[in-house]
UniProtKB/TrEMBL annotation:
One of its GO terms (biological process) is amino acid transport. This is Branched-chain amino acid ABC transporter, periplasmic branched-chain amino acid-binding protein. Residues 1-25 form the signal peptide. It comes from Polymorphum gilvum (strain LMG 25793 / CGMCC 1.9160 / SL003B-26A1). Residues 28-368 form the Leucine-binding protein domain.
Length: 397
């Protein structure tokens, strides 16, 4: 194998040629259709960096599979379902992409699913979360390396749920938030906890005073331990604003799942907070994550973030699938990917044959405050492995 420096140079050159030059008939064309602009831009940037690093890692820096050059085509959904739908159709139709990856938004993803079916090409969903993507709106061309709402919900229910616990939720009023709460509600049933109240706010909400007051009123007279569980993506995360309203006056604790590092700055005000996360760079212990952390720090002067790991997982899955199939033919890829096990920065993932959802570990954490770190540090309490969680199959039977 060539030295690392030469492999990275080869990767950089291949990426440049793939993005800027004309693709040949033998190239492997991957379309990354994601929200490069808009409220989830930070998520999108991480996802793309991770995707390119995953392709690089899995090909040993050559950016080739079986002698075929990888060409990555970028499309911006602008977080708009109609634009995402058109961009994916363009990727399959005009650019002849063999496989597409994305998007960031669950609402955009749901609009894109029928396009994959219409063109008979794979859409590898990363990082959109809503259960319905690999649930009631799923079709055979959809795979997902990102976690779904049920995986988030079950992990957080394990972290928070117990006999005598009462919980209220605050979530965004669109597919991500509503699917997340529905899954969390179902997951709590086996824990003995009670979900007493659900509050939904617009995705662009700035003022959470009224929402917080309704939640406080619903919880303040309840006996036992009380949580406000926040499910939020992107800008305007309400945790800091609600914490400033002193929910502890009513014995209410704030809880939330993992998030990007910038959002977890608000967690510094919540030492001891428990929840569950998809990824934090210090938690998984495996060679792929070691490489990701080391290389990301070298290249970007920062650790990899929440969605960087997801993007890398998608890149690795694509390379493994094409190698296993020996082809970019869609039916051959589907046959190769159903039940496929592959290693990622999180460890093992498995594409479940029934709905193509990647089964994977989640991490129960407790926040520790370190004055030298800008965010609340999620320390591992327990790894929830694939066999520890029963993730429901929600596709139409």
């Amino acid at each position: 194998m060539m030295p690392v420096s030469r492999r990275l140079a080869a990767a950089s050159l291949a990426c440049f040629v793939g993005l800027a030059g004309a693709a040949s008939a033998e190239d492997i064309r991957i379309a990354h259709v994601y929200g490069k602009t808009g409220a989830l831009e930070a998520y999108a940037k991480q996802s793309h960096i991770g995707l390119m690093m995953g392709l690089e890692y899995a090909t040993g820096g050559t950016m080739e599979i079986d002698g075929r050059k990888i060409v990555v085509i970028e499309k911006d959904t602008q977080l708009k379902p109609d634009i995402g739908k058109a961009a994916l159709a363009e990727a399959y139709g005009d650019d002849d992409a063999h496989i597409a990856v994305g998007p960031v938004s669950s609402g955009v993803a749901l609009a894109m699913l029928p396009v994959a079916e219409e063109y008979g090409r794979i859409l590898l969903v990363e990082p959109a979360v809503a259960d319905s993507i690999t649930g009631e709106n799923w079709n055979r061309y959809i795979f997902r390396t990102g976690r779904n709402s049920s995986q988030d919900a079950i992990a957080n229910a394990v972290a928070l749920g117990a006999q005598g616990v009462t919980i209220a939720t605050l979530a965004q009023d669109y597919a991500f938030g509503r699917d997340g709460v529905a899954a969390f509600r179902d997951a709590l049933k086996d824990t003995g906890a009670t979900l007493a109240f659900e509050e939904y706010a617009p995705t662009d909400a700035q003022d959470f005073t009224a929402s917080a007051q309704r939640i406080f009123d619903a919880l303040k007279d309840k006996p036992g331990r009380k949580f406000l569980f926040v499910i939020w993506a992107g800008a305007n995360n309400p945790i800091g604003k609600i914490k400033a309203m002193e929910p502890e006056r009513f014995g209410i604790e704030i809880a939330s799942g993992g998030n990007i590092l910038a959002a977890m700055q608000a967690y510094k005000a919540l030492p001891g907070m428990e929840g569950a996360t998809y990824y934090y760079y210090e938690i998984p212990q495996n060679p792929i994550n070691d490489w990701l952390v080391s290389e990301h720090k070298k290249r970007h002067n920062s650790p990899p973030d929440f969605f960087t790991a997801g993007g890398m997982s998608a890149g690795i899955a694509i390379v493994e699938a094409i190698r296993k199939a020996g082809s970019t033919d869609t039916d051959a890829l589907i046959a190769a990917m159903e039940g496929m096990e592959f290693e990622t920065p999180k460890g093992k993932m498995v594409f479940r044959p029934e709905d193509h959802q990647a089964l994977q570990s989640m991490y129960h954490f407790k926040i520790r405050v370190d004055p030298e770190v800008d965010w609340g540090v999620p320390e591992l309490v327990r790894e929830l492995k694939i066999e520890d969680m029963t993730i429901p199959i929600k596709t139409k039977q």
